[in-house]
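ok trying again, last paste got cut off:
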Amino acid sequence: MQTSAPRRSMAFRLVPLGTSVLLAALLAACGDKQQPAAGGAGGGAPPPPEVAVVTVQPGTVKLSTELPGRLEPSRVAQVRARATGILNKRVFTEGSDVRAGQVLYQIESAPYQATQQSAQAQLAQAQAQMANASAMVTRYRPLVAANAVSKQEFDAAVAAEKAAQAQVAAARAAVRTADISLGYATVTAPISGRIGRSLVTEGALVSATEGTQLATIQQINPLYLNITQSAAEVLKLREALQAGKLARASGAEAARVQVLLENGQVYGQPARLLFTDLSVDPTTGQVNLRAEVPNPGGLLMPGMYVRARVEQAEIANAILLPQQAVTRGTQGDSVMVVAPDGAVAPRPIKIGGQKGQDWIVTEGLKPGEQVMVEGAMKLMMGAKVVKPVPWVPKTASAQAQQAPAATKPVASAPAAAASAPAPASAASN
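nice, full thing came through this time. structure:
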């Protein structure tokens, strides 16, 4: 017990000594950092606070409207039976892509082959009768000139030849009809596209009279996008165009439509506006628009609900400002304009709409002026003159702040390592 007392007292004497050394080092570092600030305060007034600003740049702003819509195939074909008989075979894979003319089904063709052979036999018989009638006319022609055969007999021979020619034509038509009916026993794809499930199986009796449906083919590249817009919005847009407040969208991208998927993502392929309906649906009060959407990869499917961003008009000499730069109130909208000398003053403006996260300003600002976006708290603390700096959106500033934040643990590691040996040395003593 006597030997443990000196060790305990020595440990308590060493710990305050290490703590005092660390406190002295920290005070010295703080003194070094405060010396320039104190010198600056003694040398003059503090610099004006920095505020983030954007420079006014007027331009043509296209107005886009997000409208609901649904996708549908550009072409739809119902594959139906045009021959009556037993379905012998299905020769396609359900859900696959087929091309026009590809064989899909085989229907029992024996009855149609027999009908074809009968029609060919009747054609041969009619051709034989026509040959006999033509030979008769050839023999009678010189005899009637020599009065060896009566004119009446010659006319009868000519009529028989013409009747035989008509029978040959009818027989050929019957053969053609038999060929067509036999061809219907082989069911082919009327269009290229993606075929769904088969609605009949092998062994089923299909009917040409009833038009038994066998399958459905949909062409999904491209797709049609059916868009609806309220008649009130269309009327308001047309009135603004006629009044000269807006201009009709022009240029190569005037008829382009941006498709927004259900998860909010933008579809990579731009759509093309085809037409706007001239009448209003009396049941819904909506006007229908149609766009064509490329779908080379098959990502989009018929029946999907999407939103279409349509550019229908544009505003000339308009200005885009971030929403946080504008103060909206019951008496109007205003912004804080920074003068070249750093003075800040409010300015009333007029907003003509919204595009994304920005307001569209049509009146109240001039080209080259600087509008304050961030720094209102510094003005509330009494600052009269400010130093404008370019405003950086949060998306870009957040990325710039991530790099210094990642290096902080590395810089503080040596300090932690330096302070760690103190308790270890105390314990060893």
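cool. The radius of gyration is 45 Å. Residues 1-42, 402-429 have pLDDT under 50 and may be disordered.
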